[in-house]
Design goal:
The chain is mainly β and 292 residues long. It has two helices and 17 strands.
Length: 292
């Protein structure tokens, strides 16, 4: 009967914001701004401190934008804006217990022994090499299978799993517009582009865990079943054992491109016409690795 008082932890989050405007000349002006959020970088204690602690390596959220306004002449005006934002997610289990070789579980057979190899050049591989958690050794995520023990176990011990969503989400936007006044016409044309990239592992979200999943739950269909999950685990009796055949990371891309042309024509003091055309090309989000 394990009882303990969870230790307290202090965290700090702050959101910096800065803006600058610079007037190069009477016809050229630059505006730039940055907003972000800095969270807690470090270890968050798990339900069993020292066993299933997690580490937040990238607590920053970034958003940057800059706009240039340029007056070409008395009747022509140009404006261009560029924006970038990014957020990285994923709590990484970060205790020595995560490495199956440290807990005596390296003898458990695997259906696919090479499923724990992270793809070369993938985002997940870069993160693992940067953070270097105890379970990452020589390009492999040496995690033991996750365990379930059935409904008769009221409070099962936590499994040490790979982050279900370890990802980066950069987005870039570009907007350009040109305004021209010709007599009674105010004409305007513009272009807009939005590009989004999301690199994320496929794990435990509509997929089997690549590290494997052992179910020791009680089942009347299993002739060897002891009737209790912990007893099944002690005797090596399982209901099912599933594993994804390889580590999969998606590279999800989205692009949207728009253009427009419009005119405001003041025909006379009583009649004004507004008309124009807008063109939109939206590509469905897709996995450029061809896996999803």
């Amino acid at each position: 009967n394990l009882e303990f008082l969870a230790p307290g932890a202090k965290t700090l989050t702050y959101q910096p914001a800065i803006r600058g405007d610079y007037q190069f000349s009477s016809s050229l002006r630059l505006t730039a701004k940055y907003t972000g959020q800095r969270g807690f970088r470090g270890t968050t204690l798990g339900t069993l401190p020292g066993f299933n602690d997690t580490y937040n390596a990238y607590p920053w959220v970034h958003a940057f934008a800059t706009t240039v306004n340029y007056t070409l002449n008395a009747t022509t005006f140009l404006e261009a804006t560029y924006g970038y934002s990014n957020r990285r997610l994923g709590q990484i289990v970060n205790s020595a217990s995560t490495n199956r070789f440290n807990t005596g579980l390296n003898g458990l057979p695997q259906i696919f022994p090479d499923a724990n190899i992270l793809p070369a050049g993938s985002y997940n591989q870069r993160v693992m090499e940067d953070v270097a958690p105890p379970f990452y050794v020589n390009g492999r995520a040496e995690l033991a299978p996750t365990f379930t023990f059935g409904s008769l176990i009221g409070s099962a011990p936590p499994s040490l799993a790979y982050p279900a969503f370890l990802n980066t989400n950069p987005t870039q936007d570009i907007s350009v517009s040109l305004t021209k006044i010709v007599g009674r016409h105010t004409m305007k044309a513009g272009f807009y582009s939005n590009h989004s990239l999301k690199q994320q592992n496929l794990n435990q979200r509509n997929a089997l865990p690549f590290q494997g999943a052992l179910n020791f739950g009680n089942s009347t269909a299993n002739q060897l079943d002891t009737g209790f999950g912990f007893a099944n685990a002690a005797l090596g009796i399982f209901t099912d054992y599933t594993q994804q055949s390889s580590f999969v990371e998606g590279r999800f891309v989205y692009d949207q491109i728009e253009a427009y042309a419009q005119d405001n024509w003041k025909v006379n003091n009583r009649l004004t016409l507004d008309y124009g055309l807008r063109f939109t090309h939206q590509v469905p989000q897709y996995d450029s690795n061809g896996q999803a």
